[in-house]
Amino acid sequence: MTQTTKPPVVLDSPFHGHEDEECQLPELLRCSTMEVTNDPRMFAKNVLWKRMAAFQVISVSCVLMAKLCCTEMLALESDHIDSIAHYLAFLLLAAAFLMNLFSAIIIIMQLFHLTRLSTSGPTGFELSQSYYLNENIVNLRHLAACSFFSLIPVFLTSVALAVWVNLKDMLLHKIPLCAFILLAAFVVAYVSWIQQSTFRDKYDLLRKHQQPLMMHLQQTRAKGSLLSA
């Protein structure tokens, strides 16, 4: 990454203070930052922020889910793991905790980077658009979203196992309760799959009908430019 050069400090400026003479802190990562330009386009609504608003909701939900997983793991912590259900519950909670934290970090970092790029200057939107459509960024963003939705049934399964462990010998109580929670996990997974399939079908249909229209518009513009020339 190329670093911008520091603007020279004018020593005889009336706004120059003693703290501006030299950097009092050591150079940790870098001492340069982006240009501060008050461009009116920065305050306009655009499609990037509409899309990232949805991912922002996912990031908040990931943090809440990670907190729930951590709380359940601490409740299951014990010096003696005497059953397979206890071990599986702890393992699933640990996986859900790590993946939710991973998803939250990805989305928060992309929000941070998009904010910096979009406010970097007159070409901020184009820079943020290029960052948003980068193949690595797209794959990580979609991985974070898919991980969050797929881990909800995993979390419910771990809760069912935790209930099985905590109720111990109360078979008449824990069997129907665990079965009900596992059924809820299956229903959530099925509903999520139905919605994702419907979205993918509509998205593919949109692209299928949109491409001929866009080609027709491009040809029309090309003919118009030739006639005007």
Helical content band: over 70%
Percent range for β-strand residues: under 5%
| SSE sequence, one letter per element | HHHHH
Indicate the structural class.
mainly alpha
Shape: flat
Major β-sheet profile = none
The protein's oligomeric status is: single chain
Radius of gyration based on Cα positions: 26 Å
Low-confidence stretches: none
Q: Tell me the total number of β-strands.
A: 0
Mean pLDDT: 80
Distance between the termini: 42 Å
Count every helix, treating DSSP H or I runs of 4 or more residues as helices.
5
Structural write-up:
With 229 residues, the protein is an all-alpha fold. It contains five helices and no strands. It has helices at 47-76, 84-118, 124-132, 135-167, 171-228. Helix 2 (84-118) runs antiparallel to helix 3 and helix 4 (135-167) packs antiparallel against helix 5. The longest helix is centred in the C-terminal third of the chain and has 58 residues, at 171-228.
Question: Key features?
Answer:
mainly alpha
Could you provide a short overview of the structure?
It contains 5 helices and no strands. It has 229 residues and is mainly alpha-helical.
Give the arrangement of secondary structure elements:
Blueprint: H1 47-76, H2 84-118, H3 124-132, H4 135-167, H5 171-228
